[in-house]
Amino acid sequence: MPDNGANSPRAHERECLLSAEKLEELVRERYERPLPRRFYDDVSVNEADGGFAVLLDGRPLKTPLKRAFVVPTRALAEAVAEEWRAQEERINPATMPMTGLSNAAIDKADASQPENERAALQEHVRELAEHDMLCYRAEAAQPGLAERQRRAWDPLLRWADEELGARLYLAEGIMPVAQPAQAVAALVHPYEQAAPFTFVPLFSMATLTRSAIIPLAVMHGRISPEEAWEASVLEERWNMELWGEDEQATRRMAHRRAEFMAAARLLELVA
Predict the structure, then answer these.
(1) pLDDT tens for residues 137-174?
(2) Residues 6 or more apart whose Cβ sits within 8 Å of residue 132
(3) Element spanning 171, H or E
(4) Are 241 and 233 a contacting pair, CB within 8 Å?
(5) How far is CA 136 from CA 122, 167, 205, in A?
(6) Which are the contacts of 106, defined by CB distance < 8 A and separation ≥ 6?
(7) What is this structure's pTM?
(8) What is the three-class DSSP state of 140?
(9) Considering the chain, what is the average pLDDT of its residues?
(10) Right CATH number for 43-93 from 3.30.2180.10, 2.60.40.420, 3.40.50.720, 3.30.420.10?
């Protein structure tokens, strides 16, 4: 077919092809950007004003907002330092959960710092408390699932009532149930009072489990992190047993579990 200039079908086809190639290039640049090279040899921990600092070749680590990277305990500093030591030719943030959570505690959750996001994060916790996953039960058509939920979740709700003063209502299905304001306030209060390095792992665990109660139960030793995680994915496990495992869903669950366990470990390291 002849090419009759800029308005010809072939010219339009070339433009579309270039647009598609450009879009693919932009997506690749955004999501496949090369990881930064390792630029240091030695990693150490030192006492610092307000806690402990991690040093790369003797220079103190900074947060993404260029604030001093100072954590409250030596145990956490050593865990962060080990992540930096473990990096090879390239620095991969996905393999450094203690560093990422600590950055969030300093840059986002510290209300004393400018440009912090503590109020917005706290509001998210309130929303989770108002619609805690533990309150939403299987309908009568799924008695087996409902029984599993009762055995795993009822003790946690009783604990929240007796220890935190948060008595919540239950609902069948997914229709929202309004919770007493006093109960919601009782669940939110520990998050409001938490120091940044306690708040961030609690927030992460609450978001991953869709429950404000589960992270508090872990923090107070009511359940172990592993028990907490299994309680949070109870319905997903049930569906896998019923319909079979989906490879992508299983991979996503494993990734979320790793994030949850990292947050639980940080919570222990700052205790």
Answers:
(1) 999 899 999 999 999 999 999 999 999 999 999 999 88
(2) 168, 179, 187, 210, 211, 212, 213
(3) strand 171-172
(4) no
(5) 22, 14, 18
(6) 63, 65, 67, 68, 69, 70, 113, 196
(7) 0.87
(8) coil
(9) 91
(10) 3.30.2180.10
